[in-house]
């Protein structure tokens, strides 16, 4: 199960809405081994596409150096879908290279009155949806 604060949930959704009609993407980092998302890191979709996202390779290198310096890891890897449901595409699955991360998808498709916010584990090409628990703060 993904446990996330309301603030982080809302920031991910706001980023997805702001970048629409292009897909938004980013990471929420947390202390290594904690499984606790804490630091919101919106990224630029280098593809600038409504159907595909790609982290800029230079930004990604800087991000991973920063995570190492802070003893953090990507707890959440998120992106949005602008015209389809919040479910990993074949491309999303093939690019999922953080087996310990929660993969959050937010759909900003017009067919949904409110953005869909769903979380998945993706390990060795296997997608497993997990519940999302939104809390006011971590106890």
Automatic annotation (TrEMBL):
- Keyword Protease present in the record's keywords: the answer is yes
Q: Where is the MPN domain?
A: 2-126
Cross-referenced CDD domains: MPN_like
Q: List keywords of the entry alphabetically.
A: Hydrolase, Metal-binding, Metalloprotease, Protease, Zinc
Mind telling me which SMART domains this protein's record contains? JAB_MPN
Q: Does the keyword Transcription regulation apply?
A: no
What domain of life is recorded for the organism? Bacteria
Return the PANTHER family for the record.
CYSO-CYSTEINE PEPTIDASE
Name assigned to this protein: M67 family metallopeptidase
Question: Which organism was this protein described from?
Answer: Actinacidiphila epipremni
């Amino acid at each position: 199960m993904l446990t996330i604060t309301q603030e982080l949930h809302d920031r991910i959704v706001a980023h997805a809405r702001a970048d629409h009609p292009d897909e938004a993407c980013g990471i929420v980092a947390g202390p290594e081994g904690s499984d606790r998302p804490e630091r919101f890191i919106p990224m630029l979709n280098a593809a600038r596409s409504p159907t595909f996202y790609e982290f800029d390779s230079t930004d990604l290198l800087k991000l991973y150096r920063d995570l190492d310096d802070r003893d953090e890891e990507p707890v959440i890897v998120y992106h949005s879908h602008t015209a389809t449901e919040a479910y990993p595409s074949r491309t999303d699955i093939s690019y999922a290279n953080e087996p310990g991360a929660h993969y959050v998808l937010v759909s900003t498709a017009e067919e949904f009155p409110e953005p869909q916010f769903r979380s998945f584990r993706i390990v060795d090409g296997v997608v497993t949806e997990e519940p999302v628990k939104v809390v006011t703060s971590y106890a």
